Amino acid sequence: MALKFIDLSAPLQRIEFLVPDLIPSGYVTFLGAREGVGKTTLLTALAWQMTRPAGRGSFLGRAVPHGRVIYLNTDAADGQSRPVRYWLEQHKQVYPDGNMNGLTVLESVGAGLSPEELGELLKHAQDSGALCVIVDSFMSTFPTLDGNRLDQAMRPMLALRDFAAKTGAAVIVTDHLPKKAAGEKEGERGIMGSTGKSAQARAVHLLTRVPPREVEGRDVLRWEVRKNSFAKSGHSLGIEVERLEDEEGRAAGVHLNPCDLPAEEEGRDTRTDCAKAAVIAALTGKAGQTVTHAELLAAAISGGNVKERSAQQAVREALGALGTQAQEVRLGGRGAPRAYRYGPEAQPIPAPVDLQDVPFLIVEDELEALSAASEPEEVLRW
């Protein structure tokens, strides 16, 4: 039986944090951001701080332990991990007491990481006693999986969860945020794909850039604690990225300084905002499934504590924010009630077919099997 009975008389072990109140050890943490915002800049800063002598490492104003870090770079891998090495060199300029020998940087030379290769990485992490394993990013590490489907997203997530448990390391996985739609706040829908990814991670953080006009032209990032099962959630940190240059204008280091965020960044959402967010969550949480208009209204009313008229408006705004990713469906039956289906690049849904007019029917699973049989076998299998 694939079930484990929990001994409720056994004492609970204390949760240790790699970064106090932010990144727990022994669990999976997600850091989501749009491309080019600064995920690599921040995570290489954490890695470098961990190579400094014991008692000296600090990340976002929090002390971090000295210990080995493994950085798996599959995002824009070029055979040299140039982006990762570039930022490590920038951090080294500011903190020269760090040691490159405390880091292991890896790249995948194939189409992502297979289960067998993840097993090899697990052994290396155990043998080296790594305290932190950074996977950059989920999408490029598991490129053959459809991250919008729960059954596919769960396979690598369970493997990563097991990886963290067996090593005791903090496993940090970067991911991407969907492109912001008109009238939508950056990161409003959370990380791309199935909510199963966020559900399996114990901490989920979003990284966005504060508009320069709101911070006097400075480069300020907003680190939002969207979820943290073992610490406070629902708050944000400000990080100013200060790039240093030498006399000839060449990069000569980088400072990451905790800073205050503009007042409006910390303002509470209105009830209408909450209702709209509840509608988006109802659709994205059931990616690929049909959700009735009545269900969306109920989600808006419950999530925002609003009346039906405001709920109707929240549904319209949420659908507008999702754009073409939310496709309208007309259900069968009296009045052809409306429903919606969320998914990337949604395809038109054919009209209902009378089965008496066709000689046979091939169900979706059989079509997938036939398609797979006609294609060459791939190396990656999850």
Q: Can you describe what's shown?
A:
This protein is an alpha/beta fold. Strand 11 and strand 12 form a beta hairpin. It folds into 2 domains: 17-266, Rossmann fold; 271-347, Arc Repressor Mutant, subunit A. It contains 10 helices and 16 strands. The two termini are 22 Å apart. The model is unreliable at 345-380 (pLDDT under 50). It has helices spanning 39-50, 82-94, 115-128, 138-141, 150-167, 195-200, 271-284, 293-304, 308-322, 364-373, and strands at residues 17-19, 23-24, 28-33, 58-59, 62-63, 69-73, 103-107, 132-136, 170-176, 203-209, 220-228, 235-245, 251-259, 290-292, 326-330, 338-342. Helix 1 packs across helix 2. A 9-stranded mixed beta sheet has the order 7-6-8-9-3-10-11-12-13. Strands 14-16-15 form a 3-stranded antiparallel beta sheet. The chain is 31% helix and 23% strand.
Helix-strand topology string: EEEHEEEHEHEHHEHEEEEHEHHEEH
Shape, principal axes of CA atoms = globular
Secondary structure: number of strands: 16
> Number of domains in the coordinates?
2
* Average of per-residue pLDDT values: 86
Helix count equals: 10
User: What is the CATH top level name of the largest domain?
Assistant: Alpha Beta
Whole-Å distance between the termini? 22 Å
The percent of residues in helical segments reads 25-40%
Gyration radius (Cα, Å) is: 23 Å
Largest sheet: 9 strands, mixed
- What strand line-up does the widest sheet have? 7-6-8-9-3-10-11-12-13
What structural category characterises the helix and strand content? alpha/beta
